[in-house]
Specification:
Order of helices and strands: EEHEEHEEEEHEHEH
CATH topology: Rossmann fold
Number of helices: 5
GO biological process, one term: nucleoside metabolic process
Helix content: 25-40%
GO molecular function, one term: catalytic activity
InterPro entries: Nucleoside_phosphorylase_d, Nucleoside_phosphorylase_sf
CATH class: Alpha Beta
Strand content: 25-35%
Strand order of the largest sheet: 3-9-8-4-10
Protein name: Nucleoside phosphorylase domain-containing protein
Length: 186
């Protein structure tokens, strides 16, 4: 089953589950209780912490973190496990003769606009952020459903994040829809 966040990020061929960590958790949980779901594929936009990832490029992931900026600066801690990895086969990440960049995705209800946080995330090997993905993997884990995500980079996580997101969002959604339509989702 292909799912997306919803609201302004509704993507053709995908079922909306909700925006942010809480809505996505609740929406996906309800969906999994109502329907038999054999595999989950999340499609959505993402911001890049690292400038070497081109805007409007596609990335793929089965690994996510849930790290807030205060954790990066040493201003907070968590008793929760803030890393999750799906049990999806890595073979999924090769689409025909194409191999999408495999990334670790961070999820937060806030969009990063701080270059110091971006640099710390890159040093930790976390290169993109998407609000919902950690929640999706966590629910999928509870239901023992293989899951992964395909993301289109709309912006860099810097002071221009919102402006660039708005400018690239329509093109990113179209790129994801084209990818799905061309059989990119297995």
């Amino acid at each position: 089953m292909i799912v997306c966040a919803g609201r302004s990020e509704t993507i053709s061929y995908a079922v909306p589950i909700g925006v942010g960590l809480v809505e996505a958790s609740m929406g996906l949980m309800k969906l999994c209780l109502r329907e038999y779901v054999e595999k989950l594929v999340f499609v959505g936009s993402a911001g890049a912490y690292c400038y070497e990832i081109p805007l409007l490029s596609l990335c793929i992931s089965a690994r996510a973190t849930q790290i807030e900026s205060s954790f990066v600066s040493g201003g907070s801690y968590t008793p929760l496990d803030n890393y999750i990895e799906s049990n999806v086969s890595q073979e999924t990440f090769r689409v025909g003769d194409r191999c999408l960049r495999d990334v670790v995705v961070n999820s937060s209800n806030y969009i990063t606009m701080d270059s110091g946080v971006c640099a710390a995330m890159c040093r930790a090997g976390i290169v993109v952020e998407n609000m919902e993905f950690f929640a999706l993997l966590r629910v999928a884990q509870d239901f023992n459903i293989p899951a992964y995500g395909v993301f289109c980079i709309t912006n860099y996580c810097d002071t221009n994040a919102q402006k660039d997101f708005i400018a690239n969002h329509a093109a990113a959604k179209q790129k994801l829809e084209d990818f799905i339509q061309q059989g990119g989702i297995l």
